[in-house]
Design the sequence.
Protein backbone atom coordinates (compact mmCIF):
# COMPACT_ATOMS: atom_id res chain seq x y z
CA UNK A 1 0.00 0.00 0.00
CA UNK A 2 1.32 3.41 -0.89
CA UNK A 3 2.07 5.97 1.76
CA UNK A 4 -0.90 8.27 2.23
CA UNK A 5 1.41 11.28 2.29
CA UNK A 6 1.83 10.75 -1.46
CA UNK A 7 -1.51 12.41 -2.05
CA UNK A 8 -0.98 15.91 -3.44
CA UNK A 9 -4.47 17.37 -3.60
CA UNK A 10 -3.47 20.42 -5.65
CA UNK A 11 -1.86 18.23 -8.32
CA UNK A 12 -4.79 15.76 -8.45
CA UNK A 13 -7.21 18.69 -8.73
CA UNK A 14 -5.34 19.79 -11.85
CA UNK A 15 -5.66 16.29 -13.31
CA UNK A 16 -9.39 16.39 -12.55
CA UNK A 17 -9.81 19.86 -14.14
CA UNK A 18 -11.32 21.05 -10.90
CA UNK A 19 -10.35 24.40 -9.36
CA UNK A 20 -10.18 24.34 -5.58
CA UNK A 21 -9.77 27.26 -3.20
CA UNK A 22 -6.75 27.21 -0.89
CA UNK A 23 -9.05 26.39 2.04
CA UNK A 24 -10.57 23.45 0.14
CA UNK A 25 -7.13 22.15 -0.83
CA UNK A 26 -5.94 22.21 2.78
CA UNK A 27 -9.13 20.69 4.16
CA UNK A 28 -9.21 17.88 1.58
CA UNK A 29 -5.52 17.15 2.13
CA UNK A 30 -6.29 16.39 5.78
CA UNK A 31 -9.66 14.64 5.25
CA UNK A 32 -8.57 12.49 2.31
CA UNK A 33 -5.37 11.63 4.17
CA UNK A 34 -7.56 10.20 6.98
CA UNK A 35 -9.70 8.30 4.49
CA UNK A 36 -6.68 6.81 2.73
CA UNK A 37 -5.23 5.81 6.12
CA UNK A 38 -8.51 4.02 6.78
CA UNK A 39 -8.40 2.42 3.30
CA UNK A 40 -4.87 1.14 3.97
CA UNK A 41 -6.47 -1.74 5.87
CA UNK A 42 -7.13 -3.35 2.47
CA UNK A 43 -3.40 -4.10 2.47
CA UNK A 44 -4.08 -6.79 5.12
CA UNK A 45 -6.15 -8.92 2.77
CA UNK A 46 -4.53 -11.74 0.81
CA UNK A 47 -5.73 -11.17 -2.76
CA UNK A 48 -3.01 -13.15 -4.51
CA UNK A 49 -5.48 -15.71 -5.90
CA UNK A 50 -8.45 -13.43 -6.48
CA UNK A 51 -9.71 -12.09 -9.79
CA UNK A 52 -10.88 -8.50 -9.76
CA UNK A 53 -14.65 -8.00 -9.89
CA UNK A 54 -15.68 -5.10 -12.11
CA UNK A 55 -19.36 -5.93 -11.70
CA UNK A 56 -21.12 -8.06 -9.12
CA UNK A 57 -23.42 -9.74 -11.63
CA UNK A 58 -21.28 -10.17 -14.75
CA UNK A 59 -22.92 -9.81 -18.15
CA UNK A 60 -20.70 -10.21 -21.21
CA UNK A 61 -20.83 -9.00 -24.79
CA UNK A 62 -24.15 -7.21 -24.86
CA UNK A 63 -24.96 -6.38 -28.47
CA UNK A 64 -27.97 -4.91 -30.16
CA UNK A 65 -28.87 -4.33 -33.78
CA UNK A 66 -27.33 -1.17 -35.20
CA UNK A 67 -30.57 0.37 -36.39
CA UNK A 68 -31.45 4.03 -36.79
CA UNK A 69 -34.22 5.38 -34.56
CA UNK A 70 -35.75 8.71 -33.71
CA UNK A 71 -33.68 10.75 -31.31
CA UNK A 72 -33.12 14.42 -30.54
CA UNK A 73 -33.30 17.07 -33.19
CA UNK A 74 -30.42 19.57 -33.21
CA UNK A 75 -32.76 22.13 -31.68
CA UNK A 76 -33.63 19.79 -28.79
CA UNK A 77 -29.99 18.83 -28.22
CA UNK A 78 -29.17 22.53 -27.90
CA UNK A 79 -31.99 23.33 -25.50
CA UNK A 80 -29.73 23.13 -22.40
CA UNK A 81 -26.66 24.67 -24.03
CA UNK A 82 -24.96 27.44 -22.02
CA UNK A 83 -24.05 29.19 -25.31
CA UNK A 84 -25.29 28.45 -28.81
CA UNK A 85 -25.65 30.04 -32.26
CA UNK A 86 -26.61 28.84 -35.75
CA UNK A 87 -27.67 25.43 -34.41
CA UNK A 88 -24.23 24.87 -32.90
CA UNK A 89 -22.68 24.84 -29.42
CA UNK A 90 -20.36 27.78 -28.87
CA UNK A 91 -17.26 26.50 -27.10
CA UNK A 92 -14.24 28.15 -25.57
CA UNK A 93 -11.39 28.75 -28.02
CA UNK A 94 -9.16 25.64 -28.25
CA UNK A 95 -6.51 26.81 -30.73
CA UNK A 96 -4.51 30.01 -30.67
CA UNK B 1 -63.30 10.12 3.10
CA UNK B 2 -62.51 13.76 2.48
CA UNK B 3 -59.69 15.17 0.37
CA UNK B 4 -57.70 15.89 3.52
CA UNK B 5 -57.64 12.17 4.40
CA UNK B 6 -56.40 11.01 1.00
CA UNK B 7 -52.64 11.71 1.37
CA UNK B 8 -52.39 9.33 4.35
CA UNK B 9 -53.47 6.34 2.24
CA UNK B 10 -51.17 3.63 0.97
CA UNK B 11 -50.97 3.12 -2.79
CA UNK B 12 -53.01 -0.09 -2.49
CA UNK B 13 -55.77 1.74 -0.56
CA UNK B 14 -55.73 4.64 -3.02
CA UNK B 15 -56.04 2.25 -5.96
CA UNK B 16 -59.17 0.70 -4.46
CA UNK B 17 -60.84 4.11 -4.18
CA UNK B 18 -59.78 5.07 -7.70
CA UNK B 19 -61.08 1.85 -9.22
CA UNK B 20 -64.42 2.14 -7.43
CA UNK B 21 -64.67 5.73 -8.69
CA UNK B 22 -64.94 6.97 -5.11
CA UNK B 23 -62.26 9.50 -5.94
CA UNK B 24 -60.95 10.79 -9.27
CA UNK B 25 -57.26 11.02 -10.24
CA UNK B 26 -57.69 14.81 -10.42
CA UNK B 27 -59.00 14.91 -6.83
CA UNK B 28 -55.97 12.90 -5.76
CA UNK B 29 -53.59 15.42 -7.35
CA UNK B 30 -55.52 18.30 -5.76
CA UNK B 31 -55.44 16.65 -2.32
CA UNK B 32 -51.69 16.14 -2.63
CA UNK B 33 -51.22 19.76 -3.73
CA UNK B 34 -53.05 20.97 -0.61
CA UNK B 35 -51.01 18.67 1.61
CA UNK B 36 -47.70 19.72 0.05
CA UNK B 37 -48.60 23.41 0.35
CA UNK B 38 -49.32 23.00 4.05
CA UNK B 39 -46.52 20.63 5.04
CA UNK B 40 -43.56 20.99 2.69
CA UNK B 41 -42.46 24.43 3.89
CA UNK B 42 -41.52 22.56 7.12
CA UNK B 43 -40.09 19.42 5.48
CA UNK B 44 -38.36 20.67 2.32
CA UNK B 45 -38.69 17.42 0.39
CA UNK B 46 -39.62 18.82 -3.05
CA UNK B 47 -37.18 20.66 -5.32
CA UNK B 48 -39.69 21.26 -8.10
CA UNK B 49 -43.24 20.23 -8.81
CA UNK B 50 -45.46 20.65 -11.86
CA UNK B 51 -49.09 20.26 -10.80
CA UNK B 52 -50.35 21.44 -14.17
CA UNK B 53 -48.60 18.63 -16.06
CA UNK B 54 -49.80 16.10 -13.47
CA UNK B 55 -53.39 17.37 -13.64
CA UNK B 56 -53.34 16.95 -17.42
CA UNK B 57 -52.12 13.38 -17.07
CA UNK B 58 -54.75 12.74 -14.39
CA UNK B 59 -57.54 13.65 -16.85
CA UNK B 60 -56.56 10.79 -19.15
CA UNK B 61 -55.44 8.27 -16.50
CA UNK B 62 -56.31 4.67 -17.28
CA UNK B 63 -57.61 3.27 -14.00
CA UNK B 64 -57.52 -0.33 -15.17
CA UNK B 65 -53.70 -0.26 -15.20
CA UNK B 66 -51.78 -1.55 -12.13
CA UNK B 67 -50.86 1.97 -10.91
CA UNK B 68 -53.61 3.84 -12.79
CA UNK B 69 -53.88 7.43 -11.54
CA UNK B 70 -51.33 7.02 -8.72
CA UNK B 71 -48.87 9.96 -8.37
CA UNK B 72 -45.27 8.94 -7.66
CA UNK B 73 -42.54 11.35 -6.49
CA UNK B 74 -39.19 11.12 -8.31
CA UNK B 75 -35.67 11.69 -6.97
CA UNK B 76 -34.13 14.59 -8.88
CA UNK B 77 -31.47 12.35 -10.42
CA UNK B 78 -34.01 10.57 -12.68
CA UNK B 79 -34.99 12.19 -16.01
CA UNK B 80 -38.65 13.12 -16.48
CA UNK B 81 -39.21 14.72 -19.90
CA UNK B 82 -39.66 18.49 -19.68
CA UNK B 83 -38.96 18.64 -15.92
CA UNK B 84 -35.80 19.88 -14.18
CA UNK B 85 -33.20 17.23 -13.33
CA UNK B 86 -30.67 19.04 -11.16
CA UNK B 87 -29.22 16.29 -8.94
CA UNK B 88 -29.46 19.08 -6.31
CA UNK B 89 -26.28 20.51 -7.87
CA UNK B 90 -25.45 24.04 -8.96
CA UNK B 91 -23.82 22.63 -12.06
CA UNK B 92 -27.26 21.45 -13.30
CA UNK B 93 -29.38 24.21 -11.73
CA UNK B 94 -30.96 25.17 -15.07
CA UNK B 95 -31.03 21.74 -16.72
CA UNK B 96 -34.28 20.22 -18.00
CA UNK B 97 -34.51 16.58 -19.07
CA UNK B 98 -35.29 16.02 -22.75
CA UNK B 99 -36.62 12.50 -22.37
CA UNK B 100 -38.07 10.05 -19.86
CA UNK B 101 -35.78 7.59 -18.08
CA UNK B 102 -36.83 3.99 -18.69
CA UNK B 103 -38.21 3.75 -15.13
CA UNK B 104 -40.43 6.79 -15.83
CA UNK B 105 -41.54 5.32 -19.15
CA UNK B 106 -42.42 2.11 -17.31
CA UNK B 107 -44.24 3.92 -14.49
CA UNK B 108 -46.32 5.77 -17.08
CA UNK B 109 -47.02 2.52 -18.93
CA UNK B 110 -48.37 1.16 -15.61
CA UNK B 111 -50.66 4.20 -15.31
CA UNK B 112 -48.69 6.15 -12.67
CA UNK B 113 -48.22 9.91 -12.78
CA UNK B 114 -44.70 11.20 -12.00
CA UNK B 115 -45.21 14.18 -9.69
CA UNK B 116 -42.41 16.25 -8.20
CA UNK B 117 -38.63 16.07 -8.18
CA UNK B 118 -37.20 15.27 -4.76
CA UNK B 119 -34.31 16.74 -2.82
CA UNK B 120 -31.17 14.65 -2.39
CA UNK B 121 -27.48 14.84 -1.58
CA UNK B 122 -25.75 16.41 -4.58
CA UNK B 123 -25.26 13.68 -7.22
CA UNK B 124 -26.45 11.16 -4.59
CA UNK B 125 -23.25 11.56 -2.58
CA UNK B 126 -24.13 11.56 1.09
CA UNK B 127 -26.17 9.99 3.87
CA UNK B 128 -28.11 12.97 5.21
CA UNK B 129 -29.29 15.12 2.24
CA UNK B 130 -27.20 17.91 3.82
CA UNK B 131 -25.08 17.91 0.64
CA UNK B 132 -27.95 19.32 -1.43
CA UNK B 133 -26.86 22.65 -2.89
CA UNK B 134 -30.48 23.86 -2.67
CA UNK B 135 -31.85 23.29 0.82
CA UNK B 136 -32.14 21.01 3.83
CA UNK B 137 -34.79 18.31 4.06
CA UNK B 138 -36.01 17.72 7.60
CA UNK B 139 -36.89 14.40 9.20
CA UNK B 140 -40.68 14.43 9.75
CA UNK B 141 -40.24 12.67 13.11
CA UNK B 142 -37.94 15.38 14.47
CA UNK B 143 -37.40 18.50 12.41
CA UNK B 144 -33.98 19.08 14.00
CA UNK B 145 -32.68 15.86 12.45
CA UNK B 146 -31.69 14.64 8.97
CA UNK B 147 -33.98 12.37 6.92
CA UNK B 148 -31.01 10.26 5.82
CA UNK B 149 -29.70 10.21 2.30
CA UNK B 150 -29.04 10.41 -0.38
CA UNK B 151 -32.74 9.86 -1.26
CA UNK B 152 -33.76 12.02 1.73
CA UNK B 153 -36.45 14.03 -0.09
CA UNK B 154 -38.12 10.85 -1.34
CA UNK B 155 -38.10 9.27 2.14
CA UNK B 156 -39.28 12.37 4.02
CA UNK B 157 -42.13 13.03 1.57
CA UNK B 158 -43.50 9.50 1.95
CA UNK B 159 -43.11 9.62 5.75
CA UNK B 160 -44.88 12.99 5.94
CA UNK B 161 -47.81 11.81 3.78
CA UNK B 162 -46.95 14.28 1.05
CA UNK B 163 -46.23 11.50 -1.47
CA UNK B 164 -47.92 8.11 -1.87
CA UNK B 165 -44.67 6.54 -2.99
CA UNK B 166 -41.36 7.62 -4.47
CA UNK B 167 -38.41 6.49 -6.52
CA UNK B 168 -34.90 6.79 -5.13
CA UNK B 169 -31.49 5.48 -6.11
CA UNK B 170 -29.25 3.28 -3.98
CA UNK B 171 -25.50 3.16 -4.64
CA UNK B 172 -24.36 2.37 -1.09
CA UNK B 173 -27.60 2.48 0.91
CA UNK B 174 -29.22 5.65 -0.43
CA UNK B 175 -32.73 4.13 -0.56
CA UNK B 176 -32.55 1.84 2.47
CA UNK B 177 -30.85 4.18 4.98
CA UNK B 178 -33.22 7.17 4.52
CA UNK B 179 -36.17 4.75 4.47
CA UNK B 180 -34.96 3.32 7.81
CA UNK B 181 -34.42 6.58 9.65
CA UNK B 182 -37.51 8.26 8.19
CA UNK B 183 -39.73 5.27 9.06
CA UNK B 184 -40.79 3.98 5.62
CA UNK B 185 -40.11 0.95 3.42
CA UNK B 186 -37.29 1.08 0.85
CA UNK B 187 -36.03 -1.52 -1.62
CA UNK B 188 -32.68 -1.79 -3.36
CA UNK B 189 -33.23 -4.25 -6.19
CA UNK B 190 -30.55 -6.61 -7.49
CA UNK B 191 -27.93 -4.88 -9.64
CA UNK B 192 -29.35 -5.04 -13.17
CA UNK B 193 -32.96 -5.70 -12.12
CA UNK B 194 -34.04 -2.12 -12.91
CA UNK B 195 -32.79 -0.04 -15.86
CA UNK B 196 -30.63 3.04 -15.18
CA UNK B 197 -31.19 4.53 -18.64
CA UNK B 198 -31.98 8.21 -18.04
CA UNK B 199 -30.64 8.16 -14.47
CA UNK B 200 -27.63 10.42 -13.93
CA UNK B 201 -24.73 8.05 -13.22
CA UNK B 202 -22.81 8.18 -9.92
CA UNK B 203 -21.05 4.80 -9.62
CA UNK B 204 -22.08 2.66 -12.56
CA UNK B 205 -21.17 -0.73 -11.09
CA UNK B 206 -23.29 -0.04 -7.98
CA UNK B 207 -26.25 2.24 -8.84
CA UNK B 208 -29.82 0.87 -8.73
CA UNK B 209 -33.23 2.56 -8.73
CA UNK B 210 -35.69 1.46 -6.04
CA UNK B 211 -39.05 2.36 -4.47
CA UNK B 212 -39.76 4.10 -1.14
CA UNK B 213 -43.28 3.51 0.16
CA UNK B 214 -45.49 3.33 3.25
CA UNK B 215 -45.94 -0.44 3.02
CA UNK B 216 -44.21 -3.54 1.68
CA UNK B 217 -47.09 -4.24 -0.72
CA UNK B 218 -46.71 -0.76 -2.22
CA UNK B 219 -43.01 -1.40 -2.87
CA UNK B 220 -43.93 -4.67 -4.59
CA UNK B 221 -46.44 -2.79 -6.77
CA UNK B 222 -43.85 -0.22 -7.87
CA UNK B 223 -41.18 -2.87 -8.41
CA UNK B 224 -43.64 -4.77 -10.64
CA UNK B 225 -43.82 -1.68 -12.82
CA UNK B 226 -40.15 -0.67 -13.01
CA UNK B 227 -38.26 -4.01 -13.05
CA UNK B 228 -37.21 -5.74 -16.24
CA UNK B 229 -34.81 -5.82 -19.13
CA UNK B 230 -33.95 -2.67 -21.07
CA UNK B 231 -31.84 -2.87 -24.24
CA UNK B 232 -30.74 0.73 -23.54
CA UNK B 233 -28.92 -0.29 -20.34
CA UNK B 234 -26.33 -2.95 -21.13
CA UNK B 235 -26.07 -3.95 -17.46
CA UNK B 236 -29.77 -4.65 -17.25
CA UNK B 237 -30.49 -8.36 -16.71
CA UNK B 238 -32.60 -10.18 -19.28
CA UNK B 239 -34.57 -12.24 -16.76
CA UNK B 240 -38.32 -12.62 -16.34
CA UNK B 241 -40.04 -10.38 -13.78
CA UNK B 242 -42.36 -12.23 -11.38
CA UNK B 243 -45.48 -10.60 -9.92
CA UNK B 244 -43.97 -9.44 -6.62
CA UNK B 245 -47.40 -9.12 -5.00
CA UNK B 246 -48.33 -12.75 -5.80
CA UNK B 247 -46.01 -14.22 -3.14
CA UNK B 248 -47.01 -11.84 -0.33
CA UNK B 249 -48.78 -13.62 2.53
CA UNK B 250 -48.33 -16.84 4.41
CA UNK B 251 -46.08 -17.57 7.36
CA UNK B 252 -42.35 -18.09 7.42
CA UNK B 253 -42.19 -21.82 8.14
CA UNK B 254 -39.15 -23.24 6.39
CA UNK B 255 -37.54 -19.83 5.90
CA UNK B 256 -33.90 -19.71 7.01
CA UNK B 257 -32.64 -16.32 8.15
CA UNK B 258 -28.96 -15.60 8.69
CA UNK B 259 -27.52 -13.38 11.39
CA UNK B 260 -24.07 -12.21 10.27
CA UNK B 261 -21.83 -12.28 13.34
CA UNK B 262 -19.65 -9.48 11.91
CA UNK B 263 -22.64 -7.13 12.10
CA UNK B 264 -22.74 -7.33 15.91
CA UNK B 265 -20.32 -4.42 16.10
CA UNK B 266 -19.72 -1.94 18.85
CA UNK B 267 -21.17 1.38 17.88
CA UNK B 268 -24.68 0.09 17.22
CA UNK B 269 -27.07 2.29 19.17
CA UNK B 270 -28.45 0.21 22.10
CA UNK B 271 -32.06 1.05 21.19
CA UNK B 272 -31.44 -0.04 17.59
CA UNK B 273 -29.89 -3.28 18.79
CA UNK B 274 -32.82 -3.95 21.11
CA UNK B 275 -35.38 -3.33 18.36
CA UNK B 276 -33.56 -5.55 15.86
CA UNK B 277 -33.11 -8.34 18.43
CA UNK B 278 -36.84 -8.18 19.14
CA UNK B 279 -37.58 -8.26 15.40
CA UNK B 280 -35.44 -11.38 15.00
CA UNK B 281 -37.38 -13.07 17.84
CA UNK B 282 -40.62 -12.03 16.21
CA UNK B 283 -39.54 -13.51 12.85
CA UNK B 284 -38.81 -16.72 14.76
CA UNK B 285 -42.34 -16.81 16.16
CA UNK B 286 -43.58 -16.50 12.57
CA UNK B 287 -41.78 -19.75 11.79
CA UNK B 288 -38.39 -18.60 10.53
CA UNK B 289 -35.31 -20.50 11.54
CA UNK B 290 -32.43 -18.28 12.70
CA UNK B 291 -28.92 -19.36 11.72
CA UNK B 292 -25.61 -17.71 12.61
CA UNK B 293 -23.54 -16.94 9.53
CA UNK B 294 -20.24 -15.24 8.83
CA UNK B 295 -19.31 -12.58 6.28
CA UNK B 296 -15.58 -12.48 7.05
CA UNK B 297 -14.65 -9.50 4.84
CA UNK B 298 -17.30 -7.16 6.25
CA UNK B 299 -14.74 -4.86 7.90
CA UNK B 300 -13.28 -4.00 4.47
CA UNK B 301 -16.55 -3.08 2.76
CA UNK B 302 -16.49 0.66 3.50
CA UNK B 303 -12.90 1.05 2.28
CA UNK B 304 -13.65 -0.93 -0.89
CA UNK B 305 -16.84 1.02 -1.45
CA UNK B 306 -15.25 4.47 -1.15
CA UNK B 307 -12.39 3.55 -3.48
CA UNK B 308 -14.60 2.04 -6.19
CA UNK B 309 -17.51 4.48 -5.90
CA UNK B 310 -15.27 7.55 -6.02
CA UNK B 311 -13.19 6.15 -8.90
CA UNK B 312 -16.34 5.56 -10.94
CA UNK B 313 -17.76 8.92 -9.92
CA UNK B 314 -14.62 10.78 -11.00
CA UNK B 315 -15.02 9.25 -14.47
CA UNK B 316 -18.81 9.73 -14.68
CA UNK B 317 -18.67 13.35 -13.52
CA UNK B 318 -16.08 14.24 -16.16
CA UNK B 319 -19.07 14.85 -18.48
CA UNK B 320 -19.96 18.01 -16.57
CA UNK B 321 -17.72 20.34 -18.55
CA UNK B 322 -19.97 23.32 -19.21
CA UNK B 323 -20.06 22.70 -22.96
CA UNK B 324 -23.42 21.11 -23.81
CA UNK B 325 -25.50 21.77 -20.70
CA UNK B 326 -25.36 23.10 -17.18
CA UNK B 327 -23.31 25.84 -15.59
CA UNK B 328 -20.45 27.48 -17.53
CA UNK B 329 -17.96 29.87 -15.93
CA UNK B 330 -18.04 33.45 -17.22
CA UNK B 331 -15.41 34.64 -19.73
CA UNK B 332 -12.89 31.79 -19.62
CA UNK B 333 -9.45 32.82 -20.86
CA UNK B 334 -8.69 29.34 -22.25
CA UNK B 335 -10.02 25.80 -22.16
CA UNK B 336 -8.29 24.78 -18.91
CA UNK B 337 -9.68 27.85 -17.20
CA UNK B 338 -13.10 27.03 -18.67
CA UNK B 339 -13.09 23.47 -17.23
CA UNK B 340 -11.42 24.29 -13.91
CA UNK B 341 -13.67 27.20 -13.00
CA UNK B 342 -16.89 25.69 -14.42
CA UNK B 343 -16.39 22.60 -12.26
CA UNK B 344 -14.95 24.47 -9.27
CA UNK B 345 -17.97 26.78 -9.18
CA UNK B 346 -20.53 24.09 -10.08
CA UNK B 347 -19.71 21.24 -7.68
CA UNK B 348 -20.20 21.30 -3.92
CA UNK B 349 -17.60 20.18 -1.31
CA UNK B 350 -18.53 16.48 -1.02
CA UNK B 351 -18.61 16.02 -4.79
CA UNK B 352 -15.22 17.72 -5.09
CA UNK B 353 -13.80 15.54 -2.31
CA UNK B 354 -14.94 12.39 -4.09
CA UNK B 355 -13.69 13.50 -7.51
CA UNK B 356 -10.25 14.12 -5.98
CA UNK B 357 -10.19 10.77 -4.18
CA UNK B 358 -11.46 8.93 -7.28
CA UNK B 359 -8.97 10.63 -9.59
CA UNK B 360 -6.15 9.80 -7.17
CA UNK B 361 -6.96 6.08 -6.81
CA UNK B 362 -7.11 5.74 -10.60
CA UNK B 363 -3.93 7.70 -11.27
CA UNK B 364 -0.77 6.14 -12.57
CA UNK B 365 1.24 4.53 -9.78
CA UNK B 366 -1.71 4.13 -7.40
CA UNK B 367 -4.15 2.17 -9.56
CA UNK B 368 -2.86 -1.26 -8.49
CA UNK B 369 -2.57 -0.38 -4.82
CA UNK B 370 -6.05 1.07 -4.47
CA UNK B 371 -8.43 0.46 -7.36
CA UNK B 372 -7.34 -2.99 -8.46
CA UNK B 373 -6.91 -4.23 -4.91
CA UNK B 374 -10.35 -2.89 -3.98
CA UNK B 375 -11.87 -4.75 -6.93
CA UNK B 376 -10.28 -7.96 -5.69
CA UNK B 377 -11.53 -7.49 -2.13
CA UNK B 378 -14.93 -6.73 -3.66
CA UNK B 379 -14.86 -10.22 -5.18
CA UNK B 380 -14.13 -11.70 -1.73
CA UNK B 381 -17.08 -9.77 -0.29
CA UNK B 382 -19.30 -11.09 -3.08
CA UNK B 383 -18.13 -14.63 -2.33
CA UNK B 384 -18.89 -14.14 1.41
CA UNK B 385 -22.52 -13.45 0.54
CA UNK B 386 -22.73 -16.29 -2.00
CA UNK B 387 -21.45 -18.69 0.67
CA UNK B 388 -23.88 -17.41 3.30
CA UNK B 389 -26.77 -17.84 0.87
CA UNK B 390 -25.90 -21.53 0.52
CA UNK B 391 -27.35 -22.04 4.01
CA UNK B 392 -29.85 -19.18 4.42
CA UNK B 393 -32.60 -17.51 2.35
CA UNK B 394 -31.99 -13.99 3.62
CA UNK B 395 -29.82 -12.02 6.03
CA UNK B 396 -31.20 -9.92 8.88
CA UNK B 397 -29.50 -6.85 10.33
CA UNK B 398 -30.13 -3.25 11.29
CA UNK B 399 -30.28 -0.99 8.22
CA UNK B 400 -28.35 1.79 9.93
CA UNK B 401 -26.32 1.61 13.16
CA UNK B 402 -28.20 4.53 14.71
CA UNK B 403 -31.42 6.54 14.42
CA UNK B 404 -31.58 9.92 12.65
CA UNK B 405 -28.79 12.29 13.65
CA UNK B 406 -28.85 16.06 14.00
CA UNK B 407 -27.97 18.54 11.28
CA UNK B 408 -24.25 19.29 11.26
CA UNK B 409 -23.42 16.41 13.60
CA UNK B 410 -21.30 14.53 11.05
CA UNK B 411 -20.54 17.03 8.29
CA UNK B 412 -17.11 17.93 9.68
CA UNK B 413 -15.85 14.35 9.50
CA UNK B 414 -16.57 12.60 6.17
CA UNK B 415 -15.33 9.26 7.48
CA UNK B 416 -17.92 9.27 10.30
CA UNK B 417 -20.61 10.02 7.71
CA UNK B 418 -19.38 7.12 5.55
CA UNK B 419 -19.63 4.72 8.51
CA UNK B 420 -23.41 5.36 8.59
CA UNK B 421 -23.61 3.02 5.58
CA UNK B 422 -21.77 0.13 7.19
CA UNK B 423 -24.69 -2.36 6.88
CA UNK B 424 -25.74 -1.33 3.38
CA UNK B 425 -22.51 -0.75 1.37
CA UNK B 426 -21.59 -4.42 1.11
CA UNK B 427 -24.92 -5.33 -0.50
CA UNK B 428 -24.21 -2.94 -3.37
CA UNK B 429 -20.71 -4.35 -3.79
CA UNK B 430 -22.16 -7.88 -3.96
CA UNK B 431 -25.00 -6.79 -6.28
CA UNK B 432 -27.65 -8.48 -4.12
CA UNK B 433 -31.11 -7.13 -3.22
CA UNK B 434 -32.17 -5.59 0.08
CA UNK B 435 -35.13 -4.03 1.82
CA UNK B 436 -35.50 -1.82 4.87
CA UNK B 437 -38.76 -1.72 6.83
CA UNK B 438 -39.83 -0.13 10.11
CA UNK B 439 -39.18 -2.28 13.22
CA UNK B 440 -39.55 0.10 16.15
CA UNK B 441 -38.58 3.44 17.61
CA UNK B 442 -35.73 4.89 19.62
CA UNK B 443 -36.74 7.51 22.14
CA UNK B 444 -34.25 10.37 21.94
CA UNK B 445 -34.76 13.73 23.66
CA UNK B 446 -38.48 13.05 23.97
CA UNK B 447 -38.93 12.23 20.25
CA UNK B 448 -39.77 8.90 18.68
CA UNK B 449 -37.17 8.14 15.98
CA UNK B 450 -37.82 5.25 13.56
CA UNK B 451 -35.56 2.19 13.39
CA UNK B 452 -35.16 0.12 10.21
CA UNK B 453 -34.77 -3.64 9.84
CA UNK B 454 -32.77 -4.75 6.82
CA UNK B 455 -33.35 -8.02 4.97
CA UNK B 456 -30.87 -8.86 2.23
CA UNK B 457 -31.53 -11.55 -0.35
CA UNK B 458 -29.81 -13.40 -3.15
CA UNK B 459 -29.41 -12.01 -6.64
CA UNK B 460 -32.90 -11.69 -8.21
CA UNK B 461 -34.61 -12.98 -5.04
CA UNK B 462 -36.65 -9.81 -4.43
CA UNK B 463 -39.84 -11.86 -4.12
CA UNK B 464 -38.43 -13.68 -1.10
CA UNK B 465 -37.30 -10.64 0.91
CA UNK B 466 -40.60 -8.90 0.12
CA UNK B 467 -42.49 -11.95 1.37
CA UNK B 468 -40.49 -12.06 4.62
CA UNK B 469 -40.83 -8.30 5.08
CA UNK B 470 -44.57 -8.51 4.46
CA UNK B 471 -45.01 -11.27 7.05
CA UNK B 472 -43.17 -9.16 9.62
CA UNK B 473 -45.00 -5.95 8.72
CA UNK B 474 -48.48 -7.48 8.77
CA UNK B 475 -47.96 -9.00 12.21
CA UNK B 476 -46.64 -5.76 13.74
CA UNK B 477 -47.97 -2.21 13.93
CA UNK B 478 -44.82 -0.20 13.23
CA UNK B 479 -45.82 0.74 9.67
CA UNK B 480 -49.07 2.28 10.91
CA UNK B 481 -47.32 4.93 12.99
CA UNK B 482 -47.02 8.36 11.35
CA UNK B 483 -45.24 11.47 12.58
CA UNK B 484 -47.40 14.23 14.07
CA UNK B 485 -46.83 17.38 12.08
Sequence:
Amino acid sequence: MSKTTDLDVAYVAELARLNLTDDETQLFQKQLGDILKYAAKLGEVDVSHVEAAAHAVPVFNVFREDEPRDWFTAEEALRNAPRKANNLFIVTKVVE
Amino acid sequence: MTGADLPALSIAELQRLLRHREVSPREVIDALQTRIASIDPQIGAYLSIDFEAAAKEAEKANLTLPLGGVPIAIKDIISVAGQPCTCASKILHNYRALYDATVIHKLRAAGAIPLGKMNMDEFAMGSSTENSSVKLTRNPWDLSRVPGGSSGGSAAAVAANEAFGALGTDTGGSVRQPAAISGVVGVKPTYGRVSRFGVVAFASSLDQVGPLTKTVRDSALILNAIAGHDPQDTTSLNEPVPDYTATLGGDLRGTRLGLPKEYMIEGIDPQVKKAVDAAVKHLQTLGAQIIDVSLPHTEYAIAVYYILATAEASANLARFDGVRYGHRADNPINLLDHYGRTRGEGFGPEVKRRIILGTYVLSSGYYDAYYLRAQKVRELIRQDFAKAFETVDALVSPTSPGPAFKFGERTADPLQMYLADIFTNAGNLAGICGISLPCGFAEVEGKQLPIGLQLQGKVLDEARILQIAYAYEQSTDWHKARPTL
